[in-house]
Amino acid sequence: MLQILNKQEKQEILTELEEQFGIKEIPGIIVKRGEERLFLFQGSFDEEKIKLLESAVPIERVGIYFAKIQEGRIRLSIDGVQLFKNQITKNIFEIDKEQAEKWMHGSELDIPTGKRGFIIIKHKNDFLGTGKASAEKVTNFIPKNRRLKFRS
Amino acid sequence: MTQRKIPEPKPLFIERMQALLNPADFKEYQEMLKIPPVRSIRCNTLRISPEKLKERLEKNGWKIKQPWHKYPKIMIVEGKYVAKKEIEDKEKDNILNNQFNNSENILDDDVNNKSIPSEARLILGGGVGKNIKNKNKLLIDLEPGELGRALEHQLGYYYVQELSSMLPVLALEPRPEETILDLCASPGSKTTQIASSMKNTGAIIANEVSLARIKILASNLERCGVTNTIITKKEGSALCLRLEKSNLSFDKILVDAPCSGEGTLRSSHKTYLMWNIKTIKALPRIQKSLLRSAIDILKIGGTIIYSTCTHAPEENEEVVSNILNEFGNSIKLEEIKLPIKPREGITNWEDKTYNSQVKKCARIYPQDNNTEGFFLAKIKKVRWKNI
After folding, report:
1. Active site annotation includes B361
2. Same domain assignment for residues B293 and B376
3. Among A82, A124, A144, A147, which would you mutate to test the B interface (most chain B Cβ atoms within 10 Å of its Cβ)?
4. What span, in angstroms and rounded, lies between the C-alpha atoms of B336 and B346?
């Protein structure tokens, strides 16, 4: 059964996203799958209509995966970052072209960012997903199917 | 023209295509099959504007053409410019052989010569230009898979999609706020195209029966930032029946039906090997069932595009003709406006005569527009059946 977040649960996600990244608004319905994966649906079907659909046919996805609850915080997916790029104002870390290439190949970045926890990686106008910053490096979360491939 | 070795088509396939085309057309058709299709992409306007994408790709050295003024999001990648010095350096490293020293004299047969690295095979034929020397730059062909490996692709700025595959959605004309069903949705090329036209508003039900293919569909929807879509998993006809029982109906429906795939021969050589008359005779039952069920859940005034990537009349005009006869005056076929040259549907095949309305269908042959092959029918529901 679909787990559509209610107003309060959605507000909790929004509060966290605002604190972490400055996001002030999440238009649409949030659906939770399992304990941690969050999906965003921004179509015209309301909760009632989605439930009606669910009662009629097996639903595999509602909207797209945009974030994961991890260690009590929110980690935006690469697509989640792109969806909210116009709202993200905090914890952005800009990288250069060489670092961006390395990042998009799936490598962690061995650089101190001066930040801790989840950060948004950006190169020029491209938002390249979320990394986890520690003292000396940024852990990479780009999924395998979205990484740049080395030429064989 | 770039020539490739292609598998030998089965005799019955040749016979059937000769029955569809006049001798001159058939010759052109055969020649076109030897040429790979142009490399086309569709800008994902949910992520970036066509202007910005074009600018970026051109900065990367790609030569971009927008073939249809009305649809700037549709682009052909004609090749990429590389510094002549870069090629010469590779030459020094013995990557290139002597043939490339006479690059301007490369002939068609040389293009497939495997001793020439792909980077150095100059663009020839396939509608993608000619050997262009621009002072210190050469226009060369993209490497296989290069379109799918680019950063812009991984960020969802464009979708790699063959030109003829874009036509069903152009014919469907999705509008913001509509409710649309994509009955056979995976891998998602058309679903993402619909969502882009709808500006992520309204709602799309994207249905797919295979779980493996749903994963591909979901991945493409994510990459393209499609947030107005719900994916369902059900056999198409059964899905429609369930939706009807729940009083769910749609403004527009795309039935891009499973088919024998004759139109994909330029890009998929395995189709030559898989082609089988038994498949062509078996598929119409499924295709009719899908189309019939879709009409049942279409709103009055709503539109269905029925499309296949095959030339077989049994899977095309015959399906549409049967449905027209079955539904009588509750549906009608509409003219299809496309940015390319289609041919009208045929009304006679073997010993059968079809409903005369099928002339309004669009047959897309590879040799007419340098695309792959396709078939489209645009059906409008004008009233409830039996009223």
Report:
1. no
2. yes
3. A82
4. 15
Assigned domain for B22 exists: no
Structural domain count, chain B: 2
Specify the CATH number for the domain of residue B207.
3.40.50.150
**DSSP conformation letters of B188-207:** -HHHHHHHHHTTT-SEEEEE
The pLDDT of residue A152 is 55
Say if the Cβ atoms of B228 and A42 lie within 8 Å: yes
Cβ separation A53–B230 shorter than 8 A: yes
**In terms of Cα–Cα distance, which of B66, B196, B193, B53 is closest to A125?**
B53
Domain end point (choices B151, B184, B199): B151
Q: pLDDT tens digits, residue range A65-77? A: 999 999 999 999 9
Can you say whether the dihedral through the CA atoms of B80, B85, B89, B91 is positive or negative?
A: positive
Residue B33 lies in a domain: no
Identify from B47, B90, B155 which residue to disrupt to test chain A contact, counting A C-beta atoms within 10 A and taking the largest count: B155
* Beta pairing partners, A69: A74
Tell whether B200 is covered by a domain.
Answer: yes
Q: Which residues in chain A are closer than 8 Å to B231, comparing Cβ atoms? A: 59-62
pLDDT at A127: 98
Residue type at B125 in one-letter notation: G
Residues B249 and B116 in one domain: no
- Residue A106, chain B, CB below 8 Å: the answer is no
Report CB contact under 8 Å: A58, B232.
yes
- How distant is the Cα of A100 from the closest Cα of chain B, in angstroms? 10
Q: Are B156 and A79 in contact (CB < 8 Å)?
A: yes
Q: Residue holding tokens 């998602």? A: B188
Tens digit of pLDDT for each residue in A110-120?
A: 999 999 999 99
Residues A84-96 have pLDDT tens digits of 999 999 999 999 9
Beta bridge partners of A62: B230
Whether B205 and B78 map to the same domain: the answer is: no
Stated as kind and residue range, the H or E segment containing B386 is none
Mark whether B290 and B188 lie in a shared domain.
yes
Residues of chain A with pLDDT under 70: 151-152
Average pLDDT across chain B, whole number: 89
Are residues B142 and B175 both part of a single domain?
no
For residue B313, the number of C-alpha atoms closer than 13 Å in the C-beta half-sphere is 21
Same structural domain, B147 and B220: no
CB contact under 8 A, A63 and B230: yes
| Chain A: residue whose CA lies nearest to B221 | A64
**ipTM score of complex:** 0.97
B310 lies in which domain range?
164-381
In-domain check, residue B169: yes
Of A22-36, A42-56, B96-110, B196-210, the least confident: B96-110
Q: Do B302 and B202 reside in the same domain of the chain? A: yes
